Write a sequence for this structure.
């Protein structure tokens, strides 16, 4: 069987090392290009910047439209009677007067010639919550949100995967939570991930993989078919929508090829959105909007944070990677190469609400936010892995599909690093070298007008920010809502500092071979009482 694990750091040589250098070279080269073109030909430089800004504006406008569609789709799915629809799927019939979406009628009709994968009552969910030193204030609401599901929890195995390196307090907390809530599930397990396992980096991937392997043994001991088990991984602060498990069950048993599929809900960073500083609210809302957009772009959808995959597929991929800090997105590529391209991520248009970054002080919050996005941008380390596995290892993946996905991955990371900088400042570069050139003088005016139009499109972000807000806590007065609108003046700064700089930092480290070999936990705090007192936790 082909080895799909990412190479150890000491083995990344030759073409693999060159491929690690490439994204950083491209990004820094893109930033240098307007200067170089300005020295060669001012008209060429002006044309390049005009086209680049126009492309990014078009993308932004399309993204705004998609975000509204994504939000509407999510709300529609939240209002569906999933438990009733699941039973109708089981019975193969819909009551004559019931109003149901068209795709539900199609699913019922298909059962006449393509039976369901299994009856809904035979499906078992395994939910793995990864924890390091998170407080009970964070973990308990996550477990309670899971228990509030409109689903039979006696079909759910709950696993609290905790780090042995976190110490005795974490171990006692994990065991206490399992003892408190365990009787309400089919079964509940507290699984301790030992520290210092060879060839593992410190991170979530190693933790949930160890828990997954223990789950495999658990199922074998009880003679449970892994095809019947659907595994969801959650971070400690992830609170699934009450319909999540029911909708996931529905999607899984009607899926034409469930083994080669995973299921991605919409990540919304909204749990504590009222409590975090304004720059963090802008970033959190922007990330939520991004996930609303990608939920409608199935060709670009990837595993992120919380996602579900059949146990039988996880066994074939040997679970998640234990050698990367971005195990969620990397899991897409592991599965893609394990199944020779026969793999896809299916959207589940229901939210899983997460915490925005919040620490003990303003400065610590800013640092924690940068570390979190730096970890996300280190997904650029997938670029060499994908090209290596796709073009330097034997496989039967259709090359057109492989090249399209590789381009999308590479272009996405380069744009993440350079896009905001070029859009905001690139239009002023040619005039620095040619102050009397008509093309150079006109470019900033044209770019400014495009940016002005783009600001009107940005009102979509403000609208969705208000629509996705949870109920305002009683400790805040009405004027807090006004700040939720005014906060968007931070958008240019947050985009550059926390996106471009973080992406450039990650790519530059990879360029010089200074690997990120440790999962930097993100500090978060829970505001727990009417006085606004925060209790810190680490995620």
């Amino acid at each position: 069987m082909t080895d799909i694990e990412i190479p150890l750091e000491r083995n990344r040589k030759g073409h693999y090392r060159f491929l690690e250098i490439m994204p950083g070279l491209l990004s820094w080269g893109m930033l240098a290009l307007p200067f170089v073109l300005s020295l060669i030909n001012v008209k060429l430089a002006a044309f390049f910047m005009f086209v680049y800004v126009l492309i990014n504006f078009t993308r932004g406008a399309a993204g705004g439209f998609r975000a509204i569609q994504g939000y509407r789709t999510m709300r529609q799915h939240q209002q569906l009677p999933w438990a009733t629809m699941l039973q109708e799927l089981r019975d193969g019939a819909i009551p004559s007067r019931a109003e149901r979406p068209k795709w539900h009628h199609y699913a019922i009709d298909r059962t006449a010639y393509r039976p369901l994968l299994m009856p809904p009552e035979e499906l078992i969910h395994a939910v793995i919550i990864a924890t390091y030193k998170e407080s009970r204030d964070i973990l308990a609401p996550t477990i309670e949100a899971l228990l509030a599901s409109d689903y039979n929890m006696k079909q759910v195995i709950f696993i609290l995967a905790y780090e042995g390196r976190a110490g005795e307090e974490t171990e006692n907390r994990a065991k206490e939570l399992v003892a408190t809530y365990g009787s309400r599930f089919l079964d509940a397990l507290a699984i301790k991930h030992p520290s210092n396992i060879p060839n593992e980096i410190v991170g979530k991937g190693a933790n949930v993989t160890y828990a997954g392997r223990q789950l495999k043994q658990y199922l074998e001991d009880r003679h449970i078919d892994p095809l019947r088990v659907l595994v969801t991984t959650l971070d400690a602060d992830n609170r699934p929508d009450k319909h999540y498990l029911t909708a996931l069950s529905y999607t899984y048993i009607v899926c034409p090829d469930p083994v080669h599929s995973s299921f991605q809900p919409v990540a919304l960073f909204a749990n504590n959105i009222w409590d975090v500083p304004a720059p963090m609210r802008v970033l959190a809302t922007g990330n939520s909007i991004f996930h609303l957009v990608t939920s409608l772009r199935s060709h670009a959808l990837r595993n992120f944070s919380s996602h579900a995959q059949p146990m039988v597929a996880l066994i074939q991929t040997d679970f998640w990677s234990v050698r990367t800090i971005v195990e969620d997105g990397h899991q897409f590529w592991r599965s893609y190469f394990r199944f020779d391209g026969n793999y896809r991520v299916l959207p589940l248009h229901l939210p899983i609400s997460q915490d925005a970054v919040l620490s003990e002080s303003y400065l610590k919050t800013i640092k924690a936010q940068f570390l979190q996005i730096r970890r996300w941008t280190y997904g650029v380390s997938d670029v060499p892995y994908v090209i290596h596995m796709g073009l330097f290892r034997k496989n039967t993946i259709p090359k057109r599909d492989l090249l399209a996905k590789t381009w999308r991955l590479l272009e996405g990371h380069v744009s993440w690093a350079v896009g905001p900088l070029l859009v905001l400042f690139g239009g002023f570069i040619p005039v620095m070298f040619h102050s009397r050139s008509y093309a150079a003088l006109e470019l900033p005016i044209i770019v400014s007008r495009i940016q002005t139009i783009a600001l009107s499109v940005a009102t979509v972000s403000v609208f969705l920010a208000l629509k996705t807000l949870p109920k305002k806590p009683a400790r805040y007065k009405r004027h807090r809502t006004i700040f939720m609108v005014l906060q968007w003046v931070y958008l240019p700064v947050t985009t550059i500092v926390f996106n471009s700089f973080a992406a450039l930092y990650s790519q530059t480290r990879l360029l010089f071979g200074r690997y990120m070999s440790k999962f930097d936990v993100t500090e978060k705090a829970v505001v727990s009482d009417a006085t606004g007192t925060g209790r810190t936790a680490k995620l």
